[in-house]
Write a structure and sequence with these properties.
Elements (H helix, E strand, L loop, with lengths): L5 H4 L5 H4 L3 H20 L8 H24 L2 E2 L11 E2 L1 H20 L21 H6 L4
Antiparallel strand pairs: 1-2
Length: about 140
Amino acid sequence: MTKPRADAIVAEPKWTVLLPDAAERRVAAAHWKRITAEMRDREILSSSNGHALQRLVLAYVIYDRCSQEVGAGGLVDEPNVENPKAIARLSIHYKAMREAENTAERLEGLLGLTPGRRGKVAKVAKQRTRTAGADAFLGPKG
């Protein structure tokens, strides 16, 4: 018996609408395929997970984007030399990176992707259709 494809259960978002950068779209698609394949193999992927998965992938992309900015510009934004009251502050990119990290950790836990939560997530129940002998005689409901 073959397993259903992940995209048959949850449609992949249109990354071209959500992400303007082509490289980020490729990274997002790779994250999506990796996560949905793992969830499908563990039988925990359902159609109701779609938006949470999208948010998780976007959190990964935002984390990567912000970590590049922090790497290039540093952890602290220097004060404006023209303003005598200005002080050094944590980079806004660092704050956004931490927020994306927290979001990703929370969603990974809710989706059962972290090792500590894997045993707490139940498999998706298979939908069974009940039929009776009279169904063939009476025809489809309508």
